[in-house]
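Why do we bother with holo predictions? Because pocket geometry can differ from the apo form. Keep that in mind while you read this record for glutamic acid.
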Amino acid sequence: MPLPIVRFAPSPTGRIHIGNARTALMNFLFARKNHGRFILRFDDTDVARSSEEYAAGIESDLAWLGIVPNAIVRQSRRFGLYDAAAEKLRAFGRLYPAYETAEELERRRRRQQARGLPPIYDRAALRLTAAERTRLEAEGRRPHWRLKLDPTIVRWDDLVRGESHIDCASLSDPVLVREDGTYLYTLPSVVDDIDLAVTHIIRGEDHVTNTAVQIQLFEALAGHGSAPLFGHHNLLISASGEGLSKRSGALSIAALREEGIEPLAVAACAVLTGTSDSVHPVRSLEELAAELDLQRISRTQAHFDPAELKSLSARTLHQMPFEDVRQRLAAAGIAGEKAEDFWLAVRGNLAALGEVAEWWQVIAGKIVPRIEDVDLLAAARETLPEEPWDEATFARWTVLLKGRVDRKGKALFHPLRLALTGREQGPELAALLPLIGRAKAEARLSGHAV
Ligand code: GLU
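The structure, written out:
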Protein backbone atom coordinates (compact mmCIF):
# COMPACT_ATOMS: atom_id res chain seq x y z
CA MET A 1 0.00 0.00 0.00
CA PRO A 2 1.37 3.47 -0.85
CA LEU A 3 1.80 5.72 2.18
CA PRO A 4 -1.54 7.29 2.97
CA ILE A 5 -2.37 10.89 2.16
CA VAL A 6 -5.31 12.34 4.07
CA ARG A 7 -6.83 15.77 4.35
CA PHE A 8 -8.91 17.83 6.72
CA ALA A 9 -11.05 20.26 4.77
CA PRO A 10 -12.77 22.94 6.84
CA SER A 11 -14.46 25.99 5.36
CA PRO A 12 -12.86 29.04 6.95
CA THR A 13 -16.25 30.59 7.70
CA GLY A 14 -15.84 30.29 11.48
CA ARG A 15 -13.56 28.71 14.06
CA ILE A 16 -13.51 24.96 14.59
CA HIS A 17 -15.20 23.18 17.50
CA ILE A 18 -14.51 19.87 19.15
CA GLY A 19 -16.60 18.02 16.57
CA ASN A 20 -14.41 19.38 13.75
CA ALA A 21 -11.35 18.58 15.83
CA ARG A 22 -12.56 14.98 15.92
CA THR A 23 -12.36 14.80 12.12
CA ALA A 24 -9.04 16.65 12.01
CA LEU A 25 -7.49 14.40 14.63
CA MET A 26 -8.74 11.18 13.11
CA ASN A 27 -7.06 12.15 9.86
CA PHE A 28 -3.90 13.44 11.47
CA LEU A 29 -3.50 10.44 13.76
CA PHE A 30 -4.25 8.05 10.92
CA ALA A 31 -1.44 9.67 8.92
CA ARG A 32 0.88 9.60 11.94
CA LYS A 33 0.22 5.96 12.64
CA ASN A 34 0.83 4.96 9.02
CA HIS A 35 3.74 7.32 8.26
CA GLY A 36 1.57 9.22 5.81
CA ARG A 37 0.91 12.86 5.01
CA PHE A 38 -1.76 15.19 6.35
CA ILE A 39 -2.99 18.05 4.22
CA LEU A 40 -4.98 20.99 5.53
CA ARG A 41 -7.31 22.10 2.76
CA PHE A 42 -9.30 25.26 3.17
CA ASP A 43 -12.63 24.89 1.38
CA ASP A 44 -12.96 28.60 0.72
CA THR A 45 -14.75 28.63 -2.63
CA ASP A 46 -17.42 30.76 -0.96
CA VAL A 47 -15.25 33.85 -1.04
CA ALA A 48 -17.88 36.09 0.53
CA ARG A 49 -18.20 34.01 3.71
CA SER A 50 -14.61 32.79 4.01
CA SER A 51 -11.90 34.86 5.60
CA GLU A 52 -8.14 34.75 6.06
CA GLU A 53 -8.70 35.53 9.69
CA TYR A 54 -10.73 32.38 10.23
CA ALA A 55 -8.18 30.36 8.26
CA ALA A 56 -5.38 31.64 10.49
CA GLY A 57 -7.55 30.93 13.54
CA ILE A 58 -8.14 27.34 12.43
CA GLU A 59 -4.43 26.87 11.83
CA SER A 60 -3.64 28.06 15.32
CA ASP A 61 -6.42 25.92 16.84
CA LEU A 62 -4.91 22.89 15.12
CA ALA A 63 -1.39 23.83 16.20
CA TRP A 64 -2.58 24.11 19.80
CA LEU A 65 -3.91 20.57 19.51
CA GLY A 66 -0.52 19.47 18.19
CA ILE A 67 -1.59 19.16 14.56
CA VAL A 68 0.93 20.55 12.11
CA PRO A 69 -0.01 19.90 8.47
CA ASN A 70 2.49 18.66 5.90
CA ALA A 71 0.89 21.02 3.38
CA ILE A 72 -1.81 23.68 3.26
CA VAL A 73 -3.91 24.38 0.18
CA ARG A 74 -6.67 26.86 -0.51
CA GLN A 75 -9.44 26.08 -2.95
CA SER A 76 -9.77 29.77 -3.79
CA ARG A 77 -6.38 29.55 -5.55
CA ARG A 78 -7.35 26.50 -7.58
CA PHE A 79 -10.32 27.63 -9.68
CA GLY A 80 -8.47 26.83 -12.90
CA LEU A 81 -8.46 23.14 -12.00
CA TYR A 82 -12.18 23.16 -11.31
CA ASP A 83 -12.94 24.95 -14.56
CA ALA A 84 -10.94 22.34 -16.45
CA ALA A 85 -12.74 19.49 -14.71
CA ALA A 86 -16.15 21.05 -15.43
CA GLU A 87 -15.16 21.41 -19.08
CA LYS A 88 -14.16 17.77 -19.18
CA LEU A 89 -17.49 16.70 -17.69
CA ARG A 90 -19.37 18.84 -20.24
CA ALA A 91 -17.40 17.22 -23.03
CA PHE A 92 -18.39 13.79 -21.69
CA GLY A 93 -22.05 14.83 -21.54
CA ARG A 94 -22.02 14.42 -17.76
CA LEU A 95 -22.58 18.09 -16.87
CA TYR A 96 -25.70 19.72 -18.26
CA PRO A 97 -27.22 23.17 -18.00
CA ALA A 98 -30.53 23.60 -16.19
CA TYR A 99 -32.52 26.81 -16.02
CA GLU A 100 -35.18 26.26 -13.37
CA THR A 101 -35.45 28.87 -10.65
CA ALA A 102 -35.55 27.83 -7.00
CA GLU A 103 -39.31 28.59 -6.97
CA GLU A 104 -39.98 26.43 -10.02
CA LEU A 105 -38.07 23.55 -8.47
CA GLU A 106 -39.94 23.95 -5.21
CA ARG A 107 -43.33 23.90 -6.98
CA ARG A 108 -42.30 20.78 -8.86
CA ARG A 109 -41.22 19.09 -5.63
CA ARG A 110 -44.55 19.84 -4.01
CA ARG A 111 -46.44 18.43 -6.99
CA GLN A 112 -44.35 15.23 -6.81
CA GLN A 113 -44.99 14.90 -3.12
CA ALA A 114 -48.72 15.40 -3.60
CA ARG A 115 -48.68 12.52 -6.05
CA GLY A 116 -46.68 10.36 -3.63
CA LEU A 117 -43.56 10.48 -5.82
CA PRO A 118 -40.04 10.89 -4.40
CA PRO A 119 -38.84 14.51 -4.78
CA ILE A 120 -36.14 13.78 -7.32
CA TYR A 121 -35.18 16.23 -10.05
CA ASP A 122 -37.00 15.08 -13.19
CA ARG A 123 -34.20 16.00 -15.61
CA ALA A 124 -36.51 18.27 -17.57
CA ALA A 125 -33.45 20.33 -18.55
CA LEU A 126 -31.98 17.36 -20.40
CA ARG A 127 -34.95 17.39 -22.74
CA LEU A 128 -34.63 21.05 -23.69
CA THR A 129 -34.02 21.64 -27.38
CA ALA A 130 -31.32 24.02 -28.54
CA ALA A 131 -34.04 26.50 -29.51
CA GLU A 132 -35.61 26.38 -26.07
CA ARG A 133 -32.25 26.96 -24.44
CA THR A 134 -31.58 29.92 -26.70
CA ARG A 135 -34.96 31.40 -25.81
CA LEU A 136 -34.33 30.96 -22.06
CA GLU A 137 -30.93 32.60 -22.41
CA ALA A 138 -32.47 35.42 -24.40
CA GLU A 139 -34.86 35.96 -21.46
CA GLY A 140 -31.75 36.58 -19.40
CA ARG A 141 -31.71 33.23 -17.62
CA ARG A 142 -28.31 31.83 -16.71
CA PRO A 143 -27.96 28.07 -16.27
CA HIS A 144 -26.76 26.18 -13.26
CA TRP A 145 -25.02 22.91 -14.05
CA ARG A 146 -26.00 19.45 -12.90
CA LEU A 147 -24.05 16.22 -12.90
CA LYS A 148 -25.82 13.50 -14.85
CA LEU A 149 -25.69 10.60 -12.45
CA ASP A 150 -25.46 7.02 -13.65
CA PRO A 151 -28.51 5.30 -12.24
CA THR A 152 -26.41 2.58 -10.66
CA ILE A 153 -25.90 1.30 -7.15
CA VAL A 154 -22.56 2.64 -5.91
CA ARG A 155 -20.83 0.45 -3.34
CA TRP A 156 -17.85 1.05 -1.11
CA ASP A 157 -16.29 -0.69 1.83
CA ASP A 158 -16.40 2.04 4.44
CA LEU A 159 -13.44 2.05 6.83
CA VAL A 160 -15.83 2.69 9.72
CA ARG A 161 -19.26 1.52 8.62
CA GLY A 162 -18.26 -1.49 6.55
CA GLU A 163 -20.12 -2.53 3.40
CA SER A 164 -22.08 0.51 2.20
CA HIS A 165 -24.11 1.36 -0.88
CA ILE A 166 -26.31 4.07 -2.29
CA ASP A 167 -28.69 3.73 -5.21
CA CYS A 168 -27.97 6.75 -7.40
CA ALA A 169 -31.34 6.30 -9.13
CA SER A 170 -32.83 7.58 -5.87
CA LEU A 171 -30.83 10.85 -5.99
CA SER A 172 -31.40 14.08 -7.85
CA ASP A 173 -28.65 15.02 -10.26
CA PRO A 174 -26.58 17.27 -8.00
CA VAL A 175 -25.87 20.88 -8.94
CA LEU A 176 -22.10 21.30 -9.26
CA VAL A 177 -21.91 24.86 -10.61
CA ARG A 178 -24.21 27.73 -9.65
CA GLU A 179 -25.75 30.26 -12.01
CA ASP A 180 -23.02 32.76 -11.23
CA GLY A 181 -20.35 30.23 -12.16
CA THR A 182 -19.29 29.50 -8.57
CA TYR A 183 -18.78 25.93 -7.44
CA LEU A 184 -20.61 24.02 -4.78
CA TYR A 185 -18.45 21.85 -2.55
CA THR A 186 -18.81 18.54 -4.43
CA LEU A 187 -16.70 19.00 -7.56
CA PRO A 188 -13.74 21.00 -6.14
CA SER A 189 -13.44 18.45 -3.37
CA VAL A 190 -13.07 15.57 -5.80
CA VAL A 191 -10.77 17.53 -8.12
CA ASP A 192 -8.46 18.32 -5.21
CA ASP A 193 -8.56 14.79 -3.86
CA ILE A 194 -7.43 13.58 -7.28
CA ASP A 195 -4.82 16.30 -7.74
CA LEU A 196 -3.35 15.83 -4.26
CA ALA A 197 -3.46 12.03 -4.55
CA VAL A 198 -5.56 11.63 -1.42
CA THR A 199 -5.78 7.96 -0.51
CA HIS A 200 -8.22 8.01 2.42
CA ILE A 201 -11.14 10.36 3.01
CA ILE A 202 -12.03 10.28 6.68
CA ARG A 203 -14.92 12.57 7.55
CA GLY A 204 -18.20 12.85 9.41
CA GLU A 205 -21.13 10.63 8.55
CA ASP A 206 -23.10 13.69 7.45
CA HIS A 207 -21.17 13.20 4.19
CA VAL A 208 -22.26 9.61 3.51
CA THR A 209 -24.80 10.67 0.90
CA ASN A 210 -22.16 12.72 -0.94
CA THR A 211 -19.97 9.69 -1.28
CA ALA A 212 -21.86 7.92 -4.06
CA VAL A 213 -21.93 11.11 -6.12
CA GLN A 214 -18.25 11.72 -5.47
CA ILE A 215 -17.31 8.17 -6.40
CA GLN A 216 -19.08 8.71 -9.74
CA LEU A 217 -17.09 11.92 -10.16
CA PHE A 218 -13.78 10.20 -9.38
CA GLU A 219 -14.58 7.60 -11.99
CA ALA A 220 -15.62 10.16 -14.59
CA LEU A 221 -12.57 12.37 -14.07
CA ALA A 222 -9.81 9.90 -13.19
CA GLY A 223 -11.01 6.54 -14.38
CA HIS A 224 -12.51 3.41 -12.98
CA GLY A 225 -11.28 2.39 -9.53
CA SER A 226 -9.68 5.81 -8.90
CA ALA A 227 -11.76 6.69 -5.85
CA PRO A 228 -9.90 6.72 -2.54
CA LEU A 229 -11.06 4.75 0.46
CA PHE A 230 -13.77 6.38 2.58
CA GLY A 231 -14.39 6.26 6.30
CA HIS A 232 -17.35 8.08 7.86
CA HIS A 233 -17.17 8.53 11.59
CA ASN A 234 -20.11 9.23 13.87
CA LEU A 235 -20.72 12.83 14.89
CA LEU A 236 -20.35 14.31 18.33
CA ILE A 237 -23.61 15.62 19.68
CA SER A 238 -24.30 17.65 22.79
CA ALA A 239 -25.94 16.17 25.88
CA SER A 240 -29.27 17.61 24.77
CA GLY A 241 -28.96 15.72 21.51
CA GLU A 242 -28.17 18.61 19.18
CA GLY A 243 -25.32 18.63 16.73
CA LEU A 244 -22.42 20.90 17.56
CA SER A 245 -22.65 23.84 15.25
CA LYS A 246 -19.85 26.15 14.30
CA ARG A 247 -21.69 28.88 16.05
CA SER A 248 -22.02 27.09 19.41
CA GLY A 249 -19.05 29.12 20.59
CA ALA A 250 -18.60 27.47 23.99
CA LEU A 251 -17.27 24.30 22.43
CA SER A 252 -14.93 26.04 20.03
CA ILE A 253 -11.33 24.98 20.41
CA ALA A 254 -10.47 28.61 21.18
CA ALA A 255 -13.01 28.69 24.05
CA LEU A 256 -11.80 25.38 25.51
CA ARG A 257 -8.25 26.69 25.38
CA GLU A 258 -9.32 29.90 27.07
CA GLU A 259 -11.02 27.87 29.77
CA GLY A 260 -7.73 26.15 30.58
CA ILE A 261 -8.62 22.73 29.20
CA GLU A 262 -5.54 20.69 28.28
CA PRO A 263 -5.05 20.15 24.54
CA LEU A 264 -4.27 16.48 25.05
CA ALA A 265 -7.54 16.07 26.92
CA VAL A 266 -9.44 17.72 24.07
CA ALA A 267 -7.72 15.33 21.67
CA ALA A 268 -8.40 12.21 23.72
CA CYS A 269 -12.00 13.24 24.30
CA ALA A 270 -12.56 14.14 20.64
CA VAL A 271 -11.10 10.87 19.39
CA LEU A 272 -12.21 8.33 21.99
CA THR A 273 -15.79 9.48 22.65
CA GLY A 274 -18.22 7.27 20.78
CA THR A 275 -15.78 4.40 20.29
CA SER A 276 -15.53 1.08 22.06
CA ASP A 277 -12.51 2.48 23.97
CA SER A 278 -12.95 4.24 27.29
CA VAL A 279 -12.21 7.96 27.33
CA HIS A 280 -8.92 8.07 29.23
CA PRO A 281 -5.98 10.43 29.64
CA VAL A 282 -3.06 10.02 27.25
CA ARG A 283 0.49 11.25 27.45
CA SER A 284 0.96 12.17 23.81
CA LEU A 285 -0.64 12.24 20.38
CA GLU A 286 1.65 9.31 19.48
CA GLU A 287 -0.03 7.25 22.16
CA LEU A 288 -3.45 8.27 20.85
CA ALA A 289 -2.37 7.48 17.28
CA ALA A 290 -1.27 4.00 18.31
CA GLU A 291 -4.71 3.43 19.82
CA LEU A 292 -6.66 4.76 16.83
CA ASP A 293 -8.70 2.07 15.17
CA LEU A 294 -11.43 3.27 12.82
CA GLN A 295 -13.26 0.01 13.23
CA ARG A 296 -13.83 0.70 16.89
CA ILE A 297 -15.87 3.80 16.17
CA SER A 298 -19.45 3.11 17.05
CA ARG A 299 -22.30 3.44 14.57
CA THR A 300 -24.45 5.48 16.93
CA GLN A 301 -23.99 9.14 17.74
CA ALA A 302 -21.29 10.08 20.21
CA HIS A 303 -22.44 12.05 23.24
CA PHE A 304 -20.05 14.79 24.17
CA ASP A 305 -20.10 15.73 27.83
CA PRO A 306 -18.26 18.93 28.84
CA ALA A 307 -18.03 17.73 32.46
CA GLU A 308 -16.25 14.59 31.30
CA LEU A 309 -13.82 16.73 29.30
CA LYS A 310 -13.06 18.83 32.37
CA SER A 311 -12.38 15.80 34.49
CA LEU A 312 -10.26 14.26 31.73
CA SER A 313 -8.27 17.48 31.54
CA ALA A 314 -7.55 17.35 35.29
CA ARG A 315 -6.58 13.67 35.07
CA THR A 316 -4.30 14.48 32.14
CA LEU A 317 -2.42 16.93 34.37
CA HIS A 318 -2.32 14.54 37.32
CA GLN A 319 -0.27 12.04 35.35
CA MET A 320 1.83 14.49 33.33
CA PRO A 321 5.59 14.00 33.69
CA PHE A 322 7.72 17.07 34.38
CA GLU A 323 9.53 16.91 31.01
CA ASP A 324 6.20 17.33 29.24
CA VAL A 325 5.29 20.51 31.08
CA ARG A 326 8.72 22.03 31.77
CA GLN A 327 8.49 24.67 29.04
CA ARG A 328 4.99 25.77 29.93
CA LEU A 329 6.01 26.08 33.57
CA ALA A 330 9.08 28.07 32.61
CA ALA A 331 6.88 30.40 30.57
CA ALA A 332 4.90 31.00 33.77
CA GLY A 333 8.14 31.83 35.61
CA ILE A 334 8.36 28.42 37.30
CA ALA A 335 11.91 27.21 36.77
CA GLY A 336 15.05 26.40 38.65
CA GLU A 337 16.08 23.57 40.90
CA LYS A 338 12.77 23.38 42.75
CA ALA A 339 10.64 23.24 39.62
CA GLU A 340 10.46 19.47 39.19
CA ASP A 341 9.73 18.65 42.84
CA PHE A 342 7.22 21.46 42.84
CA TRP A 343 5.44 19.97 39.84
CA LEU A 344 5.34 16.51 41.36
CA ALA A 345 3.99 17.99 44.60
CA VAL A 346 1.15 19.98 43.08
CA ARG A 347 0.08 18.25 39.85
CA GLY A 348 -2.34 15.91 41.63
CA ASN A 349 -4.30 18.88 42.95
CA LEU A 350 -4.72 20.82 39.74
CA ALA A 351 -7.96 21.24 37.85
CA ALA A 352 -6.18 23.48 35.33
CA LEU A 353 -2.53 24.27 34.71
CA GLY A 354 -3.09 27.96 35.47
CA GLU A 355 -3.49 27.05 39.14
CA VAL A 356 0.26 26.40 39.45
CA ALA A 357 0.84 30.13 39.83
CA GLU A 358 -0.97 30.14 43.15
CA TRP A 359 1.04 27.19 44.50
CA TRP A 360 4.30 28.58 43.26
CA GLN A 361 3.48 31.68 45.23
CA VAL A 362 3.04 29.49 48.31
CA ILE A 363 6.47 27.95 48.01
CA ALA A 364 8.53 30.64 46.30
CA GLY A 365 6.65 33.84 47.10
CA LYS A 366 4.98 35.57 49.97
CA ILE A 367 1.70 34.58 51.63
CA VAL A 368 -0.29 35.71 54.63
CA PRO A 369 -0.35 32.82 57.12
CA ARG A 370 -3.60 32.08 58.93
CA ILE A 371 -3.13 31.58 62.60
CA GLU A 372 -5.32 29.21 64.58
CA ASP A 373 -4.19 27.41 67.74
CA VAL A 374 -1.27 29.57 68.90
CA ASP A 375 -0.05 26.93 71.40
CA LEU A 376 0.23 24.26 68.77
CA LEU A 377 2.12 26.60 66.43
CA ALA A 378 4.56 27.59 69.18
CA ALA A 379 5.34 23.92 69.83
CA ALA A 380 5.58 23.34 66.10
CA ARG A 381 8.24 26.04 65.81
CA GLU A 382 10.24 24.56 68.63
CA THR A 383 10.19 21.04 67.21
CA LEU A 384 10.93 22.07 63.63
CA PRO A 385 13.82 19.80 62.51
CA GLU A 386 17.10 21.16 61.16
CA GLU A 387 17.71 21.07 57.40
CA PRO A 388 18.34 19.28 55.04
CA TRP A 389 14.67 18.49 54.48
CA ASP A 390 13.01 15.92 52.32
CA GLU A 391 9.60 14.32 51.95
CA ALA A 392 10.09 12.35 55.19
CA THR A 393 10.70 15.50 57.26
CA PHE A 394 7.03 16.26 57.79
CA ALA A 395 6.33 12.83 59.32
CA ARG A 396 9.36 13.11 61.63
CA TRP A 397 8.31 16.56 62.70
CA THR A 398 4.69 15.71 63.45
CA VAL A 399 5.71 12.68 65.50
CA LEU A 400 7.83 14.99 67.66
CA LEU A 401 4.98 17.45 67.83
CA LYS A 402 2.47 14.83 68.93
CA GLY A 403 4.77 14.12 71.89
CA ARG A 404 4.52 17.79 72.89
CA VAL A 405 0.86 18.67 72.39
CA ASP A 406 -2.36 16.80 72.88
CA ARG A 407 -3.57 17.00 69.27
CA LYS A 408 -4.02 14.53 66.50
CA GLY A 409 -5.69 14.20 63.11
CA LYS A 410 -7.28 17.34 61.73
CA ALA A 411 -6.70 19.29 64.97
CA LEU A 412 -2.98 18.78 64.45
CA PHE A 413 -2.64 19.09 60.68
CA HIS A 414 -5.16 21.78 59.78
CA PRO A 415 -3.59 24.64 61.78
CA LEU A 416 -0.20 23.70 60.32
CA ARG A 417 -1.62 23.88 56.80
CA LEU A 418 -3.30 27.23 57.46
CA ALA A 419 -0.10 28.72 58.85
CA LEU A 420 2.28 27.28 56.27
CA THR A 421 0.18 27.84 53.15
CA GLY A 422 -2.52 30.33 54.14
CA ARG A 423 -5.05 27.95 52.56
CA GLU A 424 -7.65 25.49 53.75
CA GLN A 425 -6.69 22.82 51.27
CA GLY A 426 -3.98 21.85 48.87
CA PRO A 427 -1.23 19.40 48.03
CA GLU A 428 0.32 17.12 50.65
CA LEU A 429 2.16 19.16 53.30
CA ALA A 430 4.88 16.53 53.31
CA ALA A 431 5.68 17.45 49.70
CA LEU A 432 5.30 21.21 50.16
CA LEU A 433 7.35 21.53 53.35
CA PRO A 434 10.84 20.91 51.88
CA LEU A 435 9.97 23.32 49.06
CA ILE A 436 8.91 26.02 51.51
CA GLY A 437 12.14 25.56 53.47
CA ARG A 438 12.92 25.99 57.12
CA ALA A 439 13.38 29.75 57.36
CA LYS A 440 10.08 30.50 55.68
CA ALA A 441 8.24 27.77 57.57
CA GLU A 442 9.44 29.06 60.89
CA ALA A 443 8.45 32.62 60.06
CA ARG A 444 5.00 31.59 58.88
CA LEU A 445 4.41 29.53 62.03
CA SER A 446 5.08 32.79 63.91
CA GLY A 447 2.46 34.56 61.81
CA HIS A 448 4.84 36.54 59.58
CA ALA A 449 3.80 37.18 56.02
CA VAL A 450 6.77 35.85 54.10
N1 GLU B 1 -15.62 21.35 3.56
C1 GLU B 1 -16.30 20.11 3.81
C2 GLU B 1 -16.85 20.13 5.21
O1 GLU B 1 -16.33 20.81 6.06
C3 GLU B 1 -15.33 18.95 3.60
C4 GLU B 1 -15.99 17.62 3.60
C5 GLU B 1 -15.03 16.53 3.19
O2 GLU B 1 -14.18 16.18 4.03
O3 GLU B 1 -15.12 16.05 2.08
O4 GLU B 1 -17.83 19.49 5.51
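Residues 9-11, 43, 185, 189, 203, 207 surround glutamic acid (CB under 6 Å).
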